[in-house]
Amino acid sequence: MFLDYYRLREQPFGVTPDPRFLYFSPAHREALASLFYGIDAGRGFLALIAEPGMGKTTLLFQLLKRLKGSVRSAFLFQTQCDSHELLRYLLDAWGLDGRGKDLVQMHAQLNEFLYAEAVAGRRVAVFIDEAQNLSDTVLETVRLLSDFEAADRKLLQIVLAGQPELAHRLMRPGLAQLRQRISVVAGLQRLPAAETFRYVNHRLQVAGYEGPELFTAAALTVIAERSEGIPRNINNICFNAMSLGCAVGCKKIEAQIVEEALHDLSLESLVQKPKTAPTVAPALHDAGPTYYSWMKTHLVGRRVYLTTAVAALLACLAIYVGARSGPSAPHSSSHLSSSSSEVAPSSESQSARTVPAAFSGAPSQEPAQTEPHADSASSLTYVVQPNDTLRDLCLSIVGRYDAAVLEKVRKLNPDLKDPNRIETGQEVRLPLSLTD
């Protein structure tokens, strides 16, 4: 969880329709005002129509929040029902018992309830989400609810919220009577790039973020383009980008992190046939994105979902590292198969003897290594997770844990005095290879 890492009070890109996080774009403000006015004026039927993921349910919850105390409301989200079930849901929502009653009896009971509320000076409203899933028969039952009226006003306000399919259905000749009764129609538009930027920062602020800009301008541009301005898509991309950023120790989300998160969200990569592993192992820095993704899933997420192609690539990397480790590393196939998972006993014992020397500044018995570059091609910054050890990290990254590796780690981490003591949350720079 990245909440502590980014110092957030709560999840900024959650999946629940929390009205506190609603971003009032011009379209959202206009839709909310139209629905609020329609209910306040007693217009009877209202409609909210927008694409999936645009925030219809969140907007309805915000409307319910504003109407709280002045309107007795019922919110229906179960639209796979028949007419009898629909009326039962309504009665249950208002605390009325409709068990064992037929449609006529429930209709009469509902009429008595609405009349009593009107006499008491209270308005009643029902919100039906995902209304495009209602059958024509149930939609006709909904239309008949508008017959509950007094001489001067409607006793029941009905808001139908749904996807564009709802608009297409309402335009059918068979539903003309229902369409004629809808006096207010509101819609939501996709967010342009500038509004997407404000949307992301708004949700971060509501969640308690107080640091510098978390997403770079380039990252936000990628999010705006790839999300197509749909809030649900924006939430998914930002959540995965922040999770990945936390995993690799990035306090600022760059465009590269967003691109990697988008790759992880892609379903197409899951149905592609695995590529054949190359016969000659590439250098580690040439395999950056693939190896970077593997590090995130295997070391941080503790979830192993390596594809055949990645597994083959790791085997090739082990061959490559073994070939570069010097004359003392045998090149037999039996050694190569074991070096990808753990260090040979002789190498491990040598490492145990040279660990104190490597971190005390004493000369190493291994040949001197060239000082690594500071760029991401030769090293990465890793945030230590519970139960991590430096030995496991080195074995996973370079396939070795010996004096040469420790010397490289020492140069990358001058403040790290004891390799046997790394703590959760600590940032450690780790080499991706032993060559520049």
Considering the chains and any ligands shown, give keywords for the structure.
single chain, 436 residues, alpha/beta, Rossmann fold, 3 domains, 5-stranded parallel β-sheet, 18 helices
What is the name of the CATH topology of the largest domain? Rossmann fold
Please state how the strands of the largest beta sheet are arranged side by side: 2-3-4-1-5
Percentage of residues assigned to helices: 40-55%
Q: Helix-strand pattern, N to C? A: HEHEHHEHEHHEHHHHHHHHHEHHE
Largest pleated sheet? 5 strands, parallel
Q: Tell me, briefly, the overall form.
A: elongated
Average pLDDT reading: 77
At the fourth level of CATH, the homologous superfamily of the largest domain is: P-loop containing nucleotide triphosphate hydrolases
Radius of gyration: 31 Å
How far do the termini sit from each other? 34 Å
Q: How many separate helices?
A: 18
DSSP strand (E) fraction? 5-15%
Helix-strand category: alpha/beta
Total discrete domains? 3
Regions with pLDDT < 50 over 5+ consecutive residues?
Answer: 276-316, 318-376
- So, CATH architecture of the largest domain? 3-Layer(aba) Sandwich
Total E-strand runs: 7
Characterization of this structure:
The protein is of the alpha/beta class. The protein has three domains: 26-187, Rossmann fold, CATH 3.40.50; 193-270, Helicase, Ruva Protein, domain 3 (Orthogonal Bundle); 289-431, no CATH class. It is 47% helix and 9% strand. It has helices spanning 26-40, 56-67, 83-93, 103-119, 136-145, 164-170, 176-181, 193-206, 217-227, 231-247, 255-265, 268-271, 288-300, 308-324, 333-339, 345-360, 390-398, 403-412; strands spanning 45-49, 71-76, 123-128, 157-162, 182-187, 379-383, 427-431. It has a five-stranded parallel β-sheet, sandwiched between helices. Strands 6-7 form a two-stranded antiparallel sheet. Helix 1 crosses helix 2.
